[in-house]
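Hey all, quick one. A colleague (J.T.) asked me to put the coenzyme A job into the tracker so the inputs and the C-alpha cells live in one place instead of scattered across chat threads. No bug as far as I know, just bookkeeping. Sequence used:
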Amino acid sequence: MSAVVATERRGDVCIIWLKRPEKLNALSSAVERALDEAISSADVTHSGAVVIAGEGRAFSAGADVSEFADRDPEAIARYYRETGGIYERVAGLTQPTLAAVHGYCLGGGLELALATDLRIADETAVLGFPEVALGILPSSGGTVRATRLVGPAKAKELILLGGRIDAAQALVAGLVTEVVAAGGALERAVELAQALAELPRLAVSVAKQAIDAVPESSREAALVIERLAYGLLAQTDAAREKGGG
Ligand code: COA
C-alpha cells in the first residue's frame, strides 16, 4: 500500500490514516487509490469497525486542486469509474465507520467524512464546501449526503454560500454527531468504534444497511427490509444468547 494511506489495527478496530500532512491530506488520485487498497485490505475487512483519521494538522483540505487542470469529459468519466468511486465504496462498507475530524475538513474531505456513519469532530474542526466558489460543486456524493443529513435549505446555505463552519455549528446542523475537546477526536472515535465492534456484528451490519436503504426505498419497501432483516437476525446464535431471538 502506498505511503499516503496506512492502516493501523487497535484490537477489532481498524484506523485508516490519511498520511499526506504536508498537503493537509489533500485527496489526490494517489490518495484515493491508496484508500481503495486500504478498504480492501485484511486489516479493514477483518475489523469490526473502521475509523478514518488525518495525520498532521487537518483531517483533509479536500480534493487536490493541483489535479483539477486538463479534465476533459472523458477524463472525468474515467475518474468516476476509477478512483472517484472510493467515496461510494467507503459508504458501502458493511461494518460501522467513523470519521475522526480535526482541523480542516473541506470539500472532498468533508465528502469522505460524510460517507462514514458517525463523525466525531474536535473543537479545532473547520468544515465547509468551497467548490461553488471554484466554479464547480461537491461531486463525490456531497450534494446527496449533505441534503439528506441537514435538509435542502441548510445544504444550500453550506454548498452555495460555501462558508466555513466550526464544530459547534456543524453539530447543530447535524453534519457531525459529536464534538469533543481539541485533540480528542481520534480517541473518542476509537472508543465508539470499539463499543460497536463488541456488539453482535451481523446485527450492527444489517441495521446499518437497513438504515442506509431507507432514503432509497418507499416506506413499504423499507418496512419489508426491516422485517426481513429481523427475520434473519432473530435466528442467529447472538440473538438467541442475548434474548433477542
Ligand atoms: N489541494 C492541494 N494542495 C492543498 C490543498 C488542496 N485541496 N489544500 C492545501 N494544500 C496544500 C497547500 O498548497 C500547501 O502546500 P505547499 O506548502 O506546498 O504550498 C499545504 O497544503 C499547506 O496549505 P496552506 O494553504 O499553506 O495552509 P493554510 O493553513 O494557510 O490554509 C486552507 C489552509 C485549507 C485554508 C488552504 O490550504 C486552502 O484553501 N486549501 C484549498 C481548500 C479547497 O479549496 N479544497 C476543496 C477543493 S474542491
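Adding what we noticed when we looked at it: The chain has a mean pLDDT of 96. Strands lie at 5-10, 13-18, 49-54, 97-101, 104-106, 118-122, 126-128, 165-166, 178-180.
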